[in-house]
Amino acid sequence: MSTAVQTDLDVVVIGAGFAGLAMLHRVRESGFDARVYEAGDGVGGTWYWNRYPGARTDSECYYYCLSFSKELVEEWSWSERYPGQPEMLRYLDFVADKFDLRKDIRFGTRVTSATFDESSNTWEVATDTGERVRSRFVITGLGLLTAPHIPDFRGLDSFAGDTYLTCRWPAEGVDLTGKRVGIIGTGATGVQAIPIIAEQAAQLTVFQRTPNYVVPAQNRPMEPDEIADLKARHYEILAKARNHSFAMPFDPGHGPTAEFSEEERQRIYEEGWASGGFRFLFETFDDIILDEAANESAAEFIRSKIRGIVHDPETAELLSPRGYPYAGKRPPAGHDYYEAYNRDTVSLVDISKAPIQEITPTGLRTADATYEFDVLILATGFDAVTGALTSIDIRGRDGLTLKEKWADGPSTYLGLTVHDFPNLFTISGPGSPFANIPVCIEKNVEWIGNALDHARKSGVEVVEATAEAEADWDRQVQEVVSGTLLTQGAKVHSWFTGANIPGKKPVVNVWFGGANNYFAACDAVAERGYEGLTLTR
Hints:
The protein has 17 helices and 20 strands. Strands 1, 2, 3, 4, 5, 6, 17 and 18 form an 8-stranded mixed sheet that branches. A 5-stranded parallel sheet has the order 7-16-8-9-12, with helices on one face. It has helices at about 20-30, 45-50, 70-75, 85-100, 190-200, 225-230, 235-240, 260-275, 280, 290-310, 315-320, 335-340, 385-390, 400-405, 435-460, 465-480, 515-525; strands at about 10-15, 35, 105, 110-115, 120-125, 130-140, 160-165, 180-185, 205-210, 215, 335, 345-350, 355-360, 365, 370, 375-380, 395, 425, 460-465, 535. About 30% of the residues lie in helices and about 15% in strands. Helix 1 packs parallel to helix 15 (about 435-460) and helix 15 packs parallel to helix 17 (about 515-525). Strand 4 and strand 5 form a beta hairpin. By secondary structure, the protein is α/β, with parallel strands linked by helices. The protein has 2 domains: about 10-145 and about 385-460 and about 510-535, FAD/NAD(P)-binding domain; about 155-220 and about 245-380, no CATH class. The longest helix has 22 residues, at about 435-460.
């Protein structure tokens, strides 16, 4: 790599979650001088910020982890099939300590701007602590679901009780014993939090706009023999995950739904329900997200389960999703979610027909009723995929900001690079897969690390996606989803399209063409000498 221009660093990485830690380790292994900036006071990313009651993974532990070190795989043992937030944070602390990563991380430091200097082909990075550094490359590891979305509720500041945002839950916890609690939102976060809050609160009122298809996770402790077997087969399991459309080591489904009798379908659905989590979606039938009749068959099975679990028929009906396909919104994994509504202390309010009008000093008012509570919890989701990136003042060529560039929807090449933003890489950026995230992150990290190695070896100073390659990738991102039912999620404010954010143009913002196909496309680009990238020496 040229040293004609003096830089403080070779690489700046933003964020110290899975992506930032893996990327820091990778570039240090190659001898790059790197630094990570992290707004939080510790590592963890998602698992540092999301400490709400019930927070845990939706993917099983043995493939929701990092694999770059055989020692790491062998030395860490999971306690649960779906680890909770405290265990996930301990794991990422373990990773940071094992590889002595903290020495190159600036904690409590938020990157406020990154500006590309065309005269020197470097980035000038500024932080909220007043630090300014010049770096050849900037790599973001900000995550898909990072920037909180708080709806513009009238009167929100007037509430006299305590207000909490689930994704910024106090580290010391919150005692809800004996409190009247209102929670807005029944997405993946609300689905996890509601059963735990229901155990503590004197009264819990759930405000739901759109019911979700919730399949039980079937969590349980991990047995020692099971852990030993999974460790022994870890890299076999990883290879299987990398060859799966959603980066999970799952077997194919039984085939098209229509080829089975109703009795056989019910048996297979029951098996999927007992397996739990995403296995119900991916290991039952192969056409659930492709065929409307197949999807409705699975959806009705879930609705039948809701009717069987929830005692009150009216509440069961309110909890039963209709009018959009199963997986049209991110399907959460539940932990006694529907059972929580059998408590006398839990009530459900449908705000799709009677929307929230305002937050009041004592609670909130909908179009047809007033509710009072002591604590208000907002589980209102995220400005997904792009929000964390556009919240930073990132400026490329000619002062173009990333926010301006993406005003009509995000555009990237492979979800990794952006035309007019040289030497900027985005781990899990727009146009990358929505799949099992750690597996996707590690493939991104490998690809970026190899690209930096190639640049240094070849004397390349500038790496930038061409406009043509970017436009072609954006076209593919939109086209691959057209043969599925997933874009119908826009009807229910899915973050898959950004439709949950007022004013945000609804455009599919993640790759739904199969994580395995995405990995193959990235590998092919590298094998062809980083085709689609301009490499300036």
